[in-house]
Design goal:
By secondary structure, the chain is α/β, with parallel strands linked by helices. The protein has eleven helices and twelve strands. It starts with 6 loop residues before the first strand and ends with a helix.
């Protein structure tokens, strides 16, 4: 892997950890810094039907945070109603996800902007199509990884497993984001970021407090990643 790399894949240690919340914060912070950005959510599941069309809520939030200049079809080419892994939802819907087309479209868009953010579904090893996972997508895009961790008991193990899986595949994790998904705190949540920092598992570890706009909490990280 060499050359200029401007693509970031945001993944998580699980589903429901706040990937979209963090992704929109990074996008808005980059836009505020004057960067040209774009977002992609290759596949979104659990979409609601509105007027007979499946509406990808996460992709819509990403598109708006990136400036709203693209269609949802470009941001999220594959949408499914059932809340399953994309590969499973696609099979059940009788749809074939074209991984090569997804990769090509992302590469084209990355050449047109300063930063391209690609948001995964679930965790790093969730299958996107067939046996190809989001880790495979990240490798194909030569993407930096940003890993979102929900601040709760058990998160250390989830984080370490995700990091080990990434490194085994030659993927570079540039940041961990500890997302406080609940207003309630305890020793496990309050010590999580410090513990991960002590373990030396990533070059950047940032916390997003509950109830704080993510673009404000992630402004420093966004500046750092703008230089990556």
């Amino acid at each position: 892997m060499s050359g200029f790399r401007n693509t970031f894949l945001v993944t998580g240690t699980d589903t429901g950890v706040g990937k979209t919340w963090v992704s929109t914060g990074l996008l808005r912070a980059w836009v505020g810094a004057g960067l040209r950005v774009a977002a992609r959510k290759p596949a979104e599941t659990g979409c609601e039907s509105v007027g007979g069309r499946l509406q990808p809520a996460d992709a819509a939030a990403l598109a708006a945070a990136a400036g709203g200049g693209e269609t949802l079809e470009a941001v999220c080419p594959y949408r499914f109603a059932e809340p399953l892994a994309p590969a499973v939802a696609a099979v059940r819907a009788g749809v074939r996800i074209d991984l090569d087309a997804v990769v090509d479209a992302c590469r084209v868009r990355a050449r047109e902007v300063d930063r391209l953010l690609v948001e995964g579904a679930g965790g790093l090893l969730v299958p996107l199509t067939g046996r190809a996972t989001f880790a495979d997508l990240a490798r194909s895009l030569d993407a930096h990884l940003v890993v979102v961790i929900a601040a709760r008991l058990g998160a250390i193990n989830h984080a370490m497993l995700t990091l080990e899986a990434a490194r085994a595949r030659g993927l570079e994790v540039v940041a961990l984001v500890v997302n406080h998904v609940s207003a309630e705190t305890d020793l496990a949540t309050s010590t999580l970021a410090e513990t991960l920092a002590d373990l030396g598992v990533a070059p950047r570890i940032v916390s997003v407090p509950h109830g704080i706009p993510p673009d404000a909490a992630l402004a420093g990280l966004a500046r750092d990643l703008a230089k990556t």
